[in-house]
Amino acid sequence: MMNKNLLLEISALKLGENFNNLNDDQMKQYEEVLVSFMENFPFNEKKIKAALEEKDKKNLMVYLEALCAALKKIQAVDLASEGREFLNLLKDMDWENERIEAFISVFLVTVAMLTIDLHMAKYLEENTHAIYIRKKNENVTAKGHKTILAVDDTAISLTLLKRCLEGEPCKLVCVNSTDSALQYLENNDPDLFILDIEMPKMNGYELAKKIRKDGHEAPIIFLTNYSSKEYVTKAMQAGASDFIAKPIYKEMLTEKISKYL
What we know:
The protein has 2 domains: 4-126; 146-258, Rossmann fold, CATH 3.40.50. The chain is built from 10 helices and 5 strands; from the N terminus they run H-H-H-H-H-E-H-E-H-E-H-E-H-E-H. The chain has a 5-stranded parallel sheet with strand order 2-1-3-4-5, with helices on both faces. Helix 2 packs antiparallel against helix 5 (98-126). The protein is an alpha/beta fold and 261 residues long. The relative contact order is 0.12.
C-alpha cells in the first residue's frame, strides 16, 4: 500500500486533513484509482496530442474532459479545474488561436510531472532500500553560488536551461557529452545534476550509475519525455532523485531545483 506521507508530499494532490484517517480499505480503494490513472495517462496523453495535431476539436475536448474527470477522481482538483476552465474557453476558439497549443503543452507537462511523482511514490513504497536523495543538500555552503552540472547532447535543451536559470542563485555548468561530464567530475563535485537520458556512447542511466559509483552524492534530476512506470523504475534504479518533464518551463524547473539547493 502506498505511503501516505509520500503522497502528501505531492503538491498537485489536495488530499485534505482527513487523509491520514483513511482506513486500510479506503486507502486500498484510493490506491486502485491512482494506479489506474498512472497506467492510463501515457495513452490519454497520446490521444490528446494526436487530436491537437489533427485539429480534431471534438475529440480534443472529449479527451481533455476525460483527463479532467480522472484528475478530480484522484484529488488533483486544482489541475482538474484549470483544465475545465480551458475547455469552456475552447468551445469558442478557432484553431488559429495560439492559446490552444500553449495551454495543452503546459497542461500535459504538469500532469506528466504528477504521474511521475506518483510512480516514484509507488516505487519507493515497494523498494524501501532504494537510493533516494530528495532533500536540500545540507553540505552546500551558505555563501556563493551552488553548482549544477547539466549533461545533454542537444544544444536546444542546454540553451533552455540557461535561459530558465538566468538570475537564479546558482552556477550552471553545461556539457554536451558524457565524456565531458566525467572529465569535469575528475576535479569537481557539483551540488546537483541534471541529466538527459538519450545520449550517445553512454546514456543517462549509465552516467548516473557511474556518478554514484564514483562517490558523488548530489541529487540527480533526469530530463524526460516519458512518464511510464518502466521509465521511472529504471531511472530510480540508476539513482534518480527527481524528474523534469520536457518541454522545459522555467516555473517547473525552478520549483524542482529549489527542493535541493
